């Protein structure tokens, strides 16, 4: 969390990769899930800010593949492999997927956070990448950043302060 | 777009009146902005994804569903509470259960007033769900209102109204994000041909 380090930003429904001394950061995750992949050998890391569980519900013409769990993670993987990441070394961490507002009953939209988390896990399983740490659920927002040299995921929230996984 | 602005204007006018009555002092309202913005730009409207805000959220149900947020900065929330309820907040500015409950109810009254005037004007049934309050990062809160749009693209239609009390102090903002399928209904109700302008 040294501010001088090169910070690579990931917007909502976006993904990006970084190497060596850089940090990859996304801000204000609510029901969205930030999934990171890390290659400790090459010191490469990538992050996707996943908004929705599945591209099957997409109705857009030009689909933004970074938005959906099932399309964002394969894309993130191929971006890292293109930079020289070794697939068998990759490990995943994730954070987010909260329920910002509590309602009695609640439609599917209300449960989108937990569904995003589930879909990201399924997508990682399909890619055969182990999930080694997560900080998901709750009812609060998170800002997360991964250090590309260590793979440490820093998680900042209003209610809980900062933690590392 | 002008039609939607007018719709926002009428809703906000009623809400401003309700707020004036609550506070016992005149409240001005900026002309609403109706814009098609990408997701990042929407959170920038409240100072960025990490900016701390209080938000009362109501899901709008009925013929023209959507998401309605009443957003306040922490300072504005404290101002509002101390003026209405005469609550002087102590310590670090954290709001207790009573204060939060009061804020939720104020948001509920204003949002209800906003919504009922929109419903009258468009003759569309629009009714709010039970309000929910959160204090958190703006990005985390607003992204919740963008999920329906997320299935369609990366832009959302935002009707944004800012309230002013006295000087140029921002007291609060209404963000109405109608569901994508609601626009044709709103336009049709107003007798305007629907296009994507």
TrEMBL record, chain A:
Protein function: Probably deamidates glutamine residues to glutamate on methyl-accepting chemotaxis receptors (MCPs), playing an important role in chemotaxis.
UniProt protein name: Probable chemoreceptor glutamine deamidase CheD
GO MF term list: protein-glutamine glutaminase activity
Any Pfam family matching the protein: CheD
EC number from the UniProt entry: 3.5.1.44
PANTHER family linked: CHEMORECEPTOR GLUTAMINE DEAMIDASE CHED-RELATED (PTHR35147)
Domain of life: Bacteria
């Amino acid at each position: 969390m040294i501010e001088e380090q090169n910070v690579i930003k990931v917007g909502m429904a976006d993904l990006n990769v970084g190497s060596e001394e850089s940090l990859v950061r996304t801000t204000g995750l609510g029901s969205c899930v930030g999934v990171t992949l890390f290659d400790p050998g090459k010191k490469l890391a990538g992050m996707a800010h996943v908004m929705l569980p599945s591209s099957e519900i997409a109705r857009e013409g030009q689909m933004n593949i970074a938005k959906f769990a099932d399309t964002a993670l394969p894309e993130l993987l191929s971006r890292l492999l293109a930079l020289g990441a070794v697939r068998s070394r990759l490990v995943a961490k994730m954070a987010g997927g909260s329920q910002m507002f509590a309602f009695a009953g609640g439609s599917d939209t209300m449960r989108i956070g937990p569904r995003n988390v589930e879909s990201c896990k399924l997508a990682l399983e399909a890619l055969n990448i182990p999930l080694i740490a997560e900080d998901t659920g709750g009812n609060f927002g998170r800002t997360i950043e991964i250090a590309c040299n260590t793979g440490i995921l820093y998680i900042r929230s209003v209610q809980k302060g900062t933690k590392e996984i | 777009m002008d039609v939607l602005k007018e719709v926002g204007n009428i809703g906000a006018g009623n809400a401003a009146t309700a707020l004036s009555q609550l506070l016992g002092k005149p409240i001005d309202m900026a002309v609403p902005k109706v814009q098609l913005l990408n997701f990042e730009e929407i959170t920038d409207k409240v100072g960025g994804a990490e900016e701390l805000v209080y938000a009362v959220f109501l899901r709008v149900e009925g013929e023209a569903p959507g998401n309605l947020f009443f957003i306040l900065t922490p300072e504005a929330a404290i101002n509002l509470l101390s003026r209405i309820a005469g609550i002087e907040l102590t310590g670090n500015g954290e709001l207790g259960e009573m204060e939060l409950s009061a804020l939720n109810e104020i948001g509920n009254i204003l949002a209800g007033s906003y919504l009922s005037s929109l419903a009258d004007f468009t003759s569309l049934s629009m009714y709010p769900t039970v309000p929910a309050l959160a204090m958190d990062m703006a990005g985390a809160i607003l992204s919740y209102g963008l999920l329906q749009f997320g299935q369609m693209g990366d832009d959302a239609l935002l009707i944004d109204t800012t309230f002013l009390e006295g000087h140029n102090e921002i007291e609060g903002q209404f963000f109405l994000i109608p569901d994508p399928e609601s626009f044709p209904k709103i336009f049709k109700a107003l007798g305007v041909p629907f296009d994507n302008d």
